[in-house]
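[audit] Reproducing an earlier prediction to check determinism. Same input, same settings, fresh worker. If the tokens differ from the archived copy the diff job will pick it up downstream; this log only records the rerun itself.
[audit] input (191 residues):
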Amino acid sequence: AQAQAAELQDPKGLLETTIGTNQLLVQKMYAEYLKYMNEARSQKGNRQYATARDAVSNAKTALDRDQLLISTARYHELRSAATQLASEIDTEARLWDAAEHARTEHRREIESRIAREEAEAAKGQEIEDLLRRASELQHEQKYDKALKLIEQALFLDPTNPGAQGMRDIIQDVRLLVQQKELGRLRDLMTA
């Protein structure tokens, strides 16, 4: 109590105490500002853009809260640096998002192309299996069943030349067999 009373009576001591306190507050403000700015830069480097934006906002808040402790020129200099960093973060975030979007689209295109190629390969294999089975049925002289399998193959690929050719051949062979059978029946009837 006596020390406080002595300070009040000695204006020089009170002024020195106030100046010392203000200097400590300025140092604290600078330290807090720099801490947040460094955190923002670090988070920007780690592509943690939302966290980086928050850190810049905290740096601006620390600066705004204690702006009366520093000169107007220094305040504007620090505020401008924070605004510039925020702008850099926003620009980099937009570029990163655009690049990520492009990578995602490219990945989807590749996956889609692979899926189409796999589907075409599976369809080709199914057509090949149908034609192989149709050929077996043709050799067994089961022409109608063979033609049904060929029609299934042509349903999958209407322009498949192998299926079109095989269909024409089996239809011709079936027609020949039918004509031979009719000729044989006519011969039996006339004899």
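[audit] rerun output stored. Observation attached for the diff report: The mean pLDDT is 90.
[audit] end
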